[in-house]
Amino acid sequence: MSAQITVPNLTEFRRVSPFRCVGVPGASELAADSRLAIAALLVFFSALPLGSNPANGQVLAPFLNSPQRESDESTESKLDAKPKAEAATSGEDDKPVVAAPADTGAVFKTLASRVEQSQLSDEDKAATLATIAQGESQLAEIQTQQKLVDERTDTLSIVPQRAKKLTEKLSELTKFKPALPEDQTLPNLEVQLANADAELVIAKKAASDAETAMARATGRHREIETELPALQEKLTTLTVKDEASDAEKAASLLAQAKRAETQVAVKLVTARIAALNAEAALLAAEVAANMPQLRRDVAVRQSENLQAQNDLIKTAVEKKRAVEAAKRVESANEQLATLHPALQPIGEKNKKLAKDSQTLAKDIEAVRLLLEERTLKLEQLESSLKQAETRVDTVGLTDAVGAMLRNLKQGLPSAGEFHLRAAERQTLINDTQYELFELTDLRNKRLELMVDQIFATANPPMSLQQRADLSGEAKELLQQQRADFLDPAIRTQTNYFNALVSLSTVEQQILKTVESIRLYVDERVLWVRSTKPLTSQLSQWFQNREPEASQLMPSSDEGWFLHSAAWDGAWQRLFDEVKRRFFLWLASVVALIALLRLRVSLRKEIADLGHQVSQAGYTRFGPTMKTILLTVLTAAPLFLIFAFLSWRLHAVAGGITGMNALSRAAFAFALGYFPAEILRQICRPKGLAESHFALPSNKVAIVRRNMRLILFIVIPLLTAASFLDTSGLAFGRDTLTRCFFIAAMIALALIVARLFNPQHGVFSQFIRSRPTGWAARLVFVWYPLLIGLPVALAILALVGYYFTSQQLGWRLYRSTVALSILSVVSLLVLRWAMLRRRQLKIDELRQRRAAAAESAANSDAPPELLDENSIDLSSQVQQTRQILQTAMIVFGLAWLWVVWKDVVPALGLFDRWPLWESTKTISEIVPTDDGGSITRTRDVPEKITIADVGFSLLSFGLMIVAIRDLPGLLDFAVLRRLPFDRSTRYAITSLTTYLIAMLGLIVCCYGIGLRWNQIQWMATALTFGLAFGLQEMFANFIAGIIILFEQPIRVGDVVEIDGVTGVVSRIRIRATTITSWDRKDYIVPNKEFITGKLLNWTRSDEIARLTLEVGIAYGANTNLARDLLLKAANDHTEVLSEPPPIASFEQFGDNSLNYKLRVYIKSYEKRFHVSHDLHTAVNDLFAEAKIEISFPQRDLHLRTVPEPMLKQIVEHAASVAKPDVAKD
To answer: Looking at per-residue confidence, does 860 or 1056 come out higher?
Structure first.
């Protein structure tokens, strides 16, 4: 059947046919028939034959008549005009294309053929062919849409018959009664049970699908109403585009292809509109005939009938199993009484197998009942989830849907109970499986071996003749045991094992469904308004300022707000509770009274301990831990009173609303009071903060005063809000609850403003001492943020998001308590580290004083006095502080994740706002024609949302923190405990830093949709470009990596390069820093160490040789001088005994006898000190031995010259000088 469908307006259709779904088949038959007639007429009168007139030369015949286009000329093809010559691109004139009337695809085929024969550029040819391919695909889609119209039109005509058949089928199913043939065997019943279970699963799935389809019927109507205007708008746009292209009369092949493609797109959109209208008509007809409800009723009834039949078969199987088990027990007892004594073990085993099977039959029944209960629970949860998804998709996240989702979450079963039972059941499954293996092994054991084992254990021992006589009977008994006892026992054990596995599977599915529901609700319900804005409720409340007495009652039957009788019943329950648990109440009251009386003495002892630890040089950590215990005990009495009352009131409340409200209010007070009171007691004078943690007393007083305000203002207001929230008061409960909550949040905001004021608050001194720090620079950020948190919660409650404010407030409270605990723990660890360092320093000081006193006793000089205050403890705990800070960050983040993980799914709302699109490559397995399969990759679109960008930013921040702190933590916590030297540890931490940076960047790029296959071309280009442009930097980078792995130099090595000697202090990506002996940093590019010459004094080891040259005067005792040199070397503590020092007489000098003293020292860095000490010692020893250290000498001898000789010398000198004078 081929038809053209006009586009009727769905709104008009509903206006003409305003009937509603009929609840019962047969009711309002006239209305249903009328709706069917109207729907059929709408389709019938719009049906026209599809084709094209061969006489008019059109490219494409009109497929559908659009309401927006009354003129046929706008829908006809305009390709009959002669195209302009494409002289620039082809050597011939293009002629207009005429479509074959019988084949609309011939237009694109002709165009494609002409494109292939033309001389178009590659770019134009590709664009034209792509347009043609798109038009051809749209033609195929038009045929698909036409088929949908035909199918829906055909289905529409038989809706009454289908509805009648469903009604008749439902009537037949209603008359069904489960039945079973009599005298069936147990194996036959078990096969029927397995088949019934499989059919029941299919029927339940069908019923669930029918339920979902019925719920989505209304939603589909709304989807059609949304899709139709969009398609109408698209149709208008394409029509305008078609008319514009027709007016241009372009002659190029690309323009012709685009015009044809546009016309086909118009037909496709029109076809889609027709298909949607046909679907709407079919849906309306089915709703009128009550088809969705009938399908659901039939599917549910089939499921119920199969369930009834399944239950009947299960009952028969259980009865049959019980009867056969009893028969086997009876048969085993009778057999045991008649057996030969040597064959009694076979009878005992048969009896045990029969009794075990009988017990397992009862266990199977218990597991089956529990399985049915769990299966029903699973079906309810899955149905609730589907119902919630359907309502959210259909209605949206309205206030009513939000309330429904919150109630759904509150009704979820506890996951902890299922986890506990799952662990126990897994143990039972393992035991059952082991027993099944044992039975199977026994079943498969050879009879001869079993007979020999029985005869070998017989008592008294059996002769060979007796064994031969009883061997045949024993084998017959074992054969009978296999058939009558072992095989049934294995079947029973298998059934029990399968039942346990099924139960475990269902419970695992329940856990997964519960988690799915929890995640689904948490992702949506947090941002849904839970009640009306407070302003509207207050106006409504003040308009009804005189409510009736019934409005002051709770909604439950047992009112309590005004009824004294209800209170009498509550007090009677509490009195009975005290009598029943008298000793518990007595012990609790006595303990609380004792604790209250001890508070004064506890405070005094805290002050005494604070005075004790404040003394100079105190090193014990025990008093600090004792103070913590005393502080908790001081803060505990009132908390324990309210916690105990909440516990016992909840135990006896039952259905009394008032007692439940009091119990919850007492618990809320205890929960809020205890942390604040502990913090207040920590900050008491001479308490933990002031005396032990050495915090400023004025700042401690600020915390103490603000904690008192929280205890006396905020906590009572929140307690009142909690009491009213569960009071059940019908009039004004929500209004009063939110008023108290908002008042508490405003008070908390004012307290936070006082506590963290940058000028006078607890951090004011810290900010003033670091005016350029982050805390001072960002004070305009964190201070308003801290104040704004409680204000934001108050605003949320005011505008109706009270549930949201409660959830966020509860998590902020837990986060604050966790951060406070971490702060106290970090202060405790710092206190312990400081005391430990102080103890070590004091021990060292005592040793040095003892050594100085001993030295003074052996000499006349006074002992050296050391100043204890000169010891700088703060610098020694700095490393511990940094490691502790890192550890606290890790624990803090972990705790915050535990606290906020339930709220994190709500951030999935940001995952619905895409920012841009990317592509990712996926792998899929595709079957081949030969029956095999191949793995194929393809690119799929991926939307990058706000959540993805936030994840990348968070990953980048964590990467920065990890780069800064994780290598140091690795070095302190792990590497220093391993046999690594300093340079190896430095190399590992450096490579760890690079690895963290690389992985962090990969995660960040992955989060925003950057995949390697997308950016590898850019990375390659950048790599080549940078390699040529920055080749020196790349060479230094590679050299740095080589240095870290090959280690020609290491951090701490003493090296000499380009005449500079120093210690390697840092190895970075580009350059290495060498600190010279003058404490100057010498920056050397890394490639210099790889390509140049380098002298490493400590490469193999740190042992260095030191040479001293000494010259003594001629005539000195040479042997004594050598012995004294060796004595000076051996007496020095830094000189190694192996290799031993060497003193040698080297040569006779001009003025001295030259000696050389060669010694080996532990470290090259100590050579200056050792050289000084050795020179001093040699000088002292030589002076004591009267050995003179020579120095350069010259003897000048003068004598008198005779007078005649003197004259001759003068005259000779004058004659020699005369020629020079003449030249001048």
So the answer is: 1056
Query: CA-to-CA distance for 60 and 1117, rounded, in angstroms?
Result: 128
Residue 1155 is inside which H or E element, if any? strand 1153-1161
C-alpha to C-alpha distances, 302 to 207, 298, 305, nearest whole angstrom: 8, 6, 5
Query: Which of the residue ranges 25-34, 147-156, 527-536, 1186-1195 would you say has the lowest mean pLDDT?
Result: 25-34
Contacts of 751 (CB under 8 A, 6+ apart): 706, 709, 710, 713, 714
972-981 — which CB contacts under 8 Å span 24+ positions?
972/879, 972/883, 973/883, 981/1050, 981/1052
CB 2, CB 146: distance < 8 Å: yes
Q: 936 pairs with which residues across the strands?
A: 924
Strand pairing class (1153-1161; 1104-1112)? antiparallel
Helix (H, G, I), strand (E, B) or coil at 615: coil
Q: What is the DSSP letter of 483?
A: I
| Between residues 420 and 451, the one the model is more confident about | 451
DSSP letters spanning 13-66: HHHH------SSTTTTHHHHHHHHHHHHHHHHTT-------TTTT-SS---S--
Strands 1095-1096 and 1054-1057: antiparallel
Beta-sheet pairing, 1153-1161 with 914-927: unpaired
Query: Which residues have C-beta within 8 Å of that of residue 454, sequence separation ≥ 6?
Result: 342, 343, 345, 346, 474
Q: What angle do CA 621, 625, 626 make, to 5 degrees?
A: 110
C-alpha pair distances (Å), 1221 with each of 1209, 1215, 1216: 19, 10, 10
Can you count the helices (H) and strands (E) in the chain?
A: 37, 10
With H, G, I as helix, E, B as strand and everything else as coil, classify residue 937: strand
Instruction: Decide if pLDDT at 582 tops 90.
Output: no
912 burial via Cβ count (<10 Å: 0-12, 13-18, 19+): exposed
Give residues with Cβ within 8 angstroms of 720, minimum separation 6: 665, 740
Structure tokens at 452: 């020999």
Tell me, what DSSP letter sits at residue 1189?
A: B
Residue 1045 has pLDDT above 70, yes or no: no
Exposure string of 67-78, with b = 16+ CB inside 10 Å and e = fewer, is eebeeeebbbbb
**How many C-beta atoms surround the C-beta of residue 523 within 10 A?**
19
**Of 265, 259, 264, which Cα lies nearest the Cα of 79?**
259
Q: Is the peptide bond before 1141 cis (omega within 30 degrees of 0)?
A: no
Q: What DSSP string describes 828-841?
A: HHHHHHHHHHHHHH
**Whole-number percent of the chain with pLDDT over 90:** 4
| Cβ pair 919, 941 in contact under 8 A | yes
Give residue 252's region: left, alpha or beta (phi > 0; psi -120 to 50). beta
Token pair 């042997």 in the structure block, residue: 1119
Calpha distance 1130→384 (Å, rounded): 90
Burial of 888 (0-12, 13-18, 19+ CB in 10 A): middle
Q: How far is CA 433 from CA 706, 735, 1153, in A?
A: 63, 60, 96
> How far is residue 66's CA from residue 77's CA, in Å, rounded to a whole number?
16
Q: At what angle do helices 657-682 and 802-857 cross, to 10 degrees?
A: 30
Q: When comparing pLDDT for 556 and 1072, which is higher? A: 1072
Radius of gyration (C-alpha) of the chain in whole angstroms: 49
